[in-house]
Amino acid sequence: MDEHTSSGPARPTVTVIITTFNRAATVGRAIRSVLDQTWQDWELIVVDDCSTDGTEQAVRSFADDRIRYIRHDRNRRVSAARNTGIRCARGEYVAFLDDDDEWLPAKLEIELEVFRSSDPEVGLVYAGMLVLDDGGRVVRARTEKASGWVYDALLDHNFIGSPSRIMVKKQVLDRVAGFDETFFNYEDWELCLRVARVSKIAPVPWCLVKRHLVTEWKTSSLRNLCVGQEGILRKFRGDMEPRTLAGQLAAVAVMLFNYEPRRARGLAWESLRLRPRQFWLGASLAASMLGTGFYRWFFRRMMKRRDKLHLGRARI
């Protein structure tokens, strides 16, 4: 591991962690959005997961002693990279930023204010998010209101969605032992679920994050997303109410029909026994009977109709 050590503050308020892999074209934009924050008492740890392009040069081009660059000697995937950043973090709070996203200037300041005005039991704060297409146009604005003890609500639906939205108390991250390194998709959801077991969560009612989906569309694999969703189901199904379990089984089945229709049908029937009236799942089950090629066409149409931007554009 190669680390560029800074002489920055021994105890900044916030540690920002950017994990990156072969994103020389976008990581600079993410770093600039940290530099532009109205709250300036931060350190930035960039963990390079063994990139083979110009990512290291892009990071080292920023002359700011609050930035530390750490390079893995082999690719260990995103959860391990974030845990490397967490172990090196000196801040009271930790904020994560994906290397293809960016923050609006007041993001850190507003989240810190929410922490300071909230119940001391709040361990995680999450902001709203703007979703941008490849032309830079806003295609969705996401804000949520869920607050307090939200574990059951988060089991039902991943309403946080992106680690770029969250700030977490360092002591809470240490308590839950960081990210589960067996997850490389939905690892952020998995972490937030474990945080929600032990602490309250508070929302920021404004969009403070820009999420650029063009990079994600080009690199996302639907198969990998399906594996991540199955991991969530296996790990947390014992805590799920029947209606929630039916929904999560259905979510896996709808994706899995693209690859393993026989196993997907077993999950679909289990879901329908728990919750019989699920139109989209029933339609997916019927479409799967007409062959994988037809189902993949149907799946794209269904995701577009249901406005599932990420799933609808992931590589099958």
Structure report:
There is one protein chain. This protein has 316 residues and is an alpha/beta fold. It has 2 domains: 2-215, Spore Coat Polysaccharide Biosynthesis Protein SpsA, Chain A; 220-313, no CATH class. 45% of the residues lie in helices and 20% in strands. The protein is built from 14 helices and 10 strands. It has helices spanning 27-35, 55-60, 77-88, 107-117, 151-156, 170-175, 187-198, 213-219, 222-236, 242-256, 261-274, 279-288, 292-305, 309-313, and strands spanning 2-4, 14-20, 42-48, 67-71, 93-96, 101-103, 122-132, 138-142, 166-169, 200-212. Strands 1, 2, 3, 4, 5, 6, 7, 8, 9 and 10 form a 10-stranded mixed β-sheet that branches. The chain is globular, with a radius of gyration of 20 Å.
Short description:
With 316 residues, the protein is of the alpha/beta class.
What is the H/E string?
EEHEHEHEEHEEHEHHEHHHHHHH
Uncertain stretches: 1-9
In CATH, the homologous superfamily of the largest domain goes by the name: Spore Coat Polysaccharide Biosynthesis Protein SpsA, Chain A
Q: Give the DSSP E fraction (strand runs of 2 or more residues).
A: 15-25%
Name of the CATH first level of the largest domain: Alpha Beta
Average pLDDT confidence is 93
Write the CATH architecture name of the largest domain: Alpha-Beta Complex
